[in-house]
Specification:
Elements lengths: L20 E9 L3 E3 L2 H10 L4 H10 L7 E3 L16 H27 L8 E5 L9 H9 L6 E5 L6 H18 L5 E8 L5 H11 L12 E8 L11 E10 L7 E6 L2 E6 L3 H18 L17 E4 L4 H10 L8 H10 L6 H9 L7 E8 L3 E9 L18 E2 L5 E2 L32 H4 L18 E3 L6 E3 L3
Parallel strand pairs: 4-5, 4-6, 11-12
Antiparallel strand pairs: 1-7, 1-8, 2-3, 6-7, 8-13, 9-10, 12-13, 14-15, 16-17
Helix pairs in contact: 3-4, 7-8, 9-10
């Protein structure tokens, strides 16, 4: 069937004029290390013999457009520097420590901006795809935050990179249920992922199966949180965003294209080369359905266009970003926050979307925002929000990575980050690793090698055309844009 085939919404799929739902505070916590592309190559050379598959993956890794990725440890972290990959038991122990710590800090930031008390939190909706212990990690976060043990908790599983938005959608329904009962709702939404320590498991598969697995080049660590309220009971501060509506769709017959499979050594990324095309084709009909479901956008009888919004797109890969950019006739400026987070921190799965929304509110922009993410299924999550205020100049948690002042051989900073006098992040140039723009073509790799990672595109972040074709010096094969 067509990649764009998405079910038609029911006739009564619409929202009221005023849902009174708002994001009251945002918090983002990245771990203290930023690792460059050479970190993967270092680990590969330490523990694995040369092979064609590994050579291709490492070539792709140098040209993803990601300058640095956030990680709980550097390239010498003991868990990934042993003869064998860590077990699920060891990964769980690390998540219990590092994931909970990141989560608590992200929640404290969101709660601090909201200005309320933990005693006023009525529900918690959490998600992760890099831990599956019982009780869930949210149990330990609640204990450390001092939240009442009777708070209503929900932990979402199986939603992958779309988990942050799925959690917000679930929180919105909980808040509306409270509104129906004329009760206040303050829902803490939390997403946390620790992907970096899965590197050895992924490298094992590349070595043993001679498979071109690009997920190992993309994923990173992060926790992010927000407080969603229903307006009953008043607020101590102005909301960050109002939530106007949302849409959830499943693209038919795509279960095998995007996923995160359980494995004795953790989890394995499933990512086919169809994903960027499938995802990009599904966005337009979903956007049209969402806009038609929100009465605010039909006051003058004419619905807005995609370009009338800023876009907070989950940066699953640069081709996913550029694919949506082209499909919706956007410019890089519309997607500036997605590009910046992708280049500086990589893809932190479910935790990324709140980081993008946090980055977006740092600067002036369009009043309305479309948030969008893709997850296993393939699931498409989309929301429309309205800006209420700009964020703090300290970037609300994006200033926590530490520097060792080193750089890779291509001139990109590794394990470090510049900040201005206010502690704000000074973002790097749009050129990743000194070789390509954020959609740079990849020497030594064919489109089949890229396997859906989204590594090529049509323009760089400044809107300048990128080369559509490049000769690969190692293979002497032309590399075409995947789209």
């Amino acid at each position: 069937m067509s990649p764009s085939a998405v079910p038609t919404p029911a006739a009564n799929d619409h929202f009221e004029n005023d849902l009174s739902l708002s994001l009251l505070g945002l918090g983002v916590e990245y771990p203290p290390f930023l690792v460059g592309p050479e970190a993967l190559e270092t680990l590969a050379n330490r523990f694995y013999p040369p092979s064609n598959a590994l050579k291709r993956v490492l070539s792709i890794n140098r040209f993803t457009g990601i300058e640095t990725r956030a990680a709980v440890g550097d390239v010498d972290h003991p868990l990934v520097n042993r003869p064998d990959a860590p077990s699920i038991k060891e990964l769980n122990a690390l998540f219990r420590e590092e994931g909970v710590r990141l989560s608590v800090n992200a929640c404290k930031k969101a709660i601090g901006e909201w200005g309320g008390s933990v005693d006023d939190i009525t529900h918690i909706v959490s998600t992760t795809c890099t831990n599956s212990a019982n009780p869930g990690f949210d149990h330990y976060v609640v204990k450390q935050l001092g939240i009442s043990r009777s708070v209503e908790k929900i932990l979402l599983h199986g939603v992958g990179c779309s988990g942050g938005m799925a959690a917000m959608r679930a929180a919105a329904h909980l808040a509306l249920g409270s509104s129906y009962q004329q009760k206040p709702a303050r829902v803490l939404v939390l997403a946390c992922e620790i992907s970096s320590v899965l590197v050895r498991s992924e490298l094992d598969s590349i070595n043993e199966e001679q498979a071109i697995r690009v997920g190992v080049c993309l994923f990173s660590d992060c926790a992010s949180a927000t407080i969603l309220g229903n307006g009953i009971g008043g607020e101590s501060a102005e909301p960050v965003y109002d939530l106007l509506g949302w849409k959830h769709q499943i693209i038919d017959d795509t279960e095998d294209d995007l996923g995160f499979d359980v494995d004795p050594l953790g989890w394995k990324v499933v990512l086919t080369q169809r994903v960027p095309t499938l995802a990009s084709a599904a966005v337009s009909p979903c956007f049209q359905d969402l806009i038609h479901s929100v009465p605010e956008f039909h006051k003058d009888g004419q619905a807005p266009m995609a370009t009338d919004f800023d876009w907070a797109l989950h940066p699953g890969g640069s081709l996913i970003i550029t694919g949506v950019e082209q499909a919706m006739k956007l410019t890089p400026e519309h997607l500036r926050a997605s590009y910046e987070i992708y280049m500086k921190y990589g893809n932190s799965s479910s935790a990324t979307i709140l980081s993008v929304l946090n980055k977006l509110r740092e600067s002036e922009g369009k009043e309305q925002v479309i948030a969008c993410a893709f997850g296993p299924g393939i699931a498409l999550e989309m929301m429309v929000l309205k800006r209420r205020k700009l964020g703090p100049t300290t970037s609300n948690g994006l200033e926590h990575a530490e520097f060792d002042g080193s750089s890779n051989g291509n001139g990109a900073s590794v394990g470090s980050r510049d900040t201005d006098s206010n502690g704000s992040v000074t973002e790097g140039a749009a050129v990743a690793n000194g070789h390509s723009d954020v959609h740079g073509n990849i020497p030594g790799a064919t489109p089949a090698d890229m396997n859906g990672s989204g590594l090529n595109g049509a323009s760089n972040i400044d809107g300048r055309p990128a080369a559509n074709r490049e000769q690969a010096p190692e293979s002497n094969l032309p590399v075409e844009d995947l789209d």
